[in-house]
Structures are given as C-alpha cells and as structure tokens.
Amino acid sequence: MMLAEATLARLREHMADSPFDALVLGVPENVGYATGYRSVAGDIFSSHRMAAVVTADDVAVAAPAADAGAISEHPVRLEAYGRFFFEGPDGSHPAVSAADQHPDFGSALRAACSSVSGIVGVDGAVLPGSDAASALPDPDRVADAGAWMARVRSVKLPGEVELLGAAAHLAEKGIEAAIDGAAPGATERDLARIVASTMTNGGGMPRFVVVTSGERSALSDSRATERMLRPGDLVRLDVGCTVDGYWSDVGRTAVVGAPDRLQNDRYAAILAGEEAQLEVFRAGVTGGHLFDVAVAAVEAGGIKPYRRHHCGHGIGSSVYEPPSVAPAGADHVLAAGMVLCLETPYYEIGWGGMMVEDTLVVTTDGYDLLTHIDRGMRVIPA
Hints:
The protein is an alpha+beta fold.
C-alpha cells in the first residue's frame, strides 16, 4: 500500500470512531495526509487556497486550476477554480477541463461538499468565520476537528517514520559535511551552501539552514552571512529538509580550535539536559515532564536560570507538531509511534549560542533514534 493510501485509510479508521461523518480540511499538512498531494504553488503563494473533503467513500479537492495537472496524479475528485490552461490532444484529460470550472475557492469548495451529510469536522483553515465558511453545510452541523486531526497525525505509520528517518539522515550528512569543510576564513554562507547542497544531492528539499558563528551564534533562526570563522568561535548549526513532505530538524555545535572552559562547561550542561530526557523517554511520559527534567539537568550543570519556552516538539509533515515538550505540554502524553525532536539550546547575546537536537521515535519501553551523529561539541581545527 502506498503511503498516501495508508494515511487515508488510517484517517477513515479514526473517523469511524469519531463524531464526524465528513472532514473538510484546509491546512496544507492535513490536505497532504488525506490525499498525498502537496502543492508546490502553496509553498510559493500566500494567497493559495486548497481544501480536501473526505467522507467514507469519497475524497474531493477544491484547488486552483493551476494545480490540476499535478493533482491528476492522485485518485481524488477535483473541483478547480480560477483560470489556467493545460492543452491536450483530445481535451479529455481532467487538467484540460479545469480552467473556468468554478470562479473562486468558495464555489469550488461548495461543489466539493455537495454530497456531504451529517456532522462535518473542519480544521482551522475553514472554521466558521473564515472566508470559506459560506461554502460549508449548516453551521449547526460543523464542528472543530483541528485538535482531533493533530492527534491522528501525531502517531506515525511505518512509512512516515521511514521518510522522517531519511530526512534526518540528510540533515546529519549536511552538518557533517559542513563541519568537515569548515576552517578559519570560511564564511557562514560557505558552510550553509555545503549543508544545502548535501541535502539536495541526497534527494531532500532544504527548508531551513541556520549556520551562525561567534557572537552571531546566539541569534536563533538567523540567516547565514559572509562572516568569516575565527579561532575561538562557536559555530551553531540548526538545519532541516523535507523528503516527500516529511521534515527533519537537527542541531549541533562546533568550536573553531580548542574550546575554552566556559564553552566546555556550558555545552556539557545542555548536553546533560538532553541526556536526562533520553533517560526517561518512553510511552506514557508527558511533554511537561520531559521539559522539567531537561531544565533541571541544565541548571544542575551550571546554567541557572535556564529559561526556555520548550525543550522539544513533535515532527512530521509539519516541522512543529504535537506533542509539545513544554510546560503547556503537561497533558501531552507520549504514545508509541510518535516522533519528536528533543533540544536544549542556549543563547546569550554578546557571547554566543549552542545547541544539540535529535530526533527519535517513541516505543513502548523507550525510543529508537533517527539521528546518529556524535552529540558532543565538535572541534574545527584552527
């Protein structure tokens, strides 16, 4: 069974035990889960609108006519809106007839919902009050399914874990290649190019490549610059790519030349935080408990107070998914099959930043790591 067929089957299995007779999903990751289709245009244009309508025996997609060619590779009923022209020898291909099928998204969604009955679960992109609400059935039959969808998607199928592992492996290869290619005088952008090209050459799509050095290493989620590496610099790498829509998010720290005592001590503290999480990580543990364990270990290592809004997150077809490893995640209970990133970064403006971040699958009695490279602070020869 193809992964898209498996995720749709799982979705319908959960629908059978839910209050919902149908689903109307507009969040792109939810659309992808239901249909296997992930729009390139959706990554480019903020105005892109698309929704999947799922029942026990039908899947319809309301999407721009420009998506019709790519959607035709998936077994769904298309209701297209807007104008885009595909040519065909006899005009019979569904993409050819997509132009001017419906004037706007609301009209296309209304057609996609034409056979829907009973209670309709919707996610945040099509909740009542949104501009798509007029296309939905009677408001009394509409219920919020956003959190329900997140729970369904949080436990991964084996095919999803395989893709997440492939994406994590490419991120690791990119980090390793960048560290191997680093030297005094190399720029952050030099290293970022190595990371991106390594992930691309392996079949991944780079989604974020954070390579920062020296004092800039304290700037979370910052773009690489032409700053040159110098002896004594911390180098923080936080990178991710997607493989067939599934994400990676891996972090490592290096230092140019021998680390000084403060760098060693602080890195030992954050590494102890992640290792403390690993010691208790298993099904049944809460995200809140993992957070508390991480913070306590980092503080015991000498970074006190250690202030964080989270120390990890779920990952899948979104880079951030439930469960959350945070105080607010006290009721997020880990279940076998969930995939999480655990991280314990530290950022001090004017000094630098460091991090370690790994990806692992929850099992009944522990975990399986999807990341395998050395978690210690790496040394770049000076």
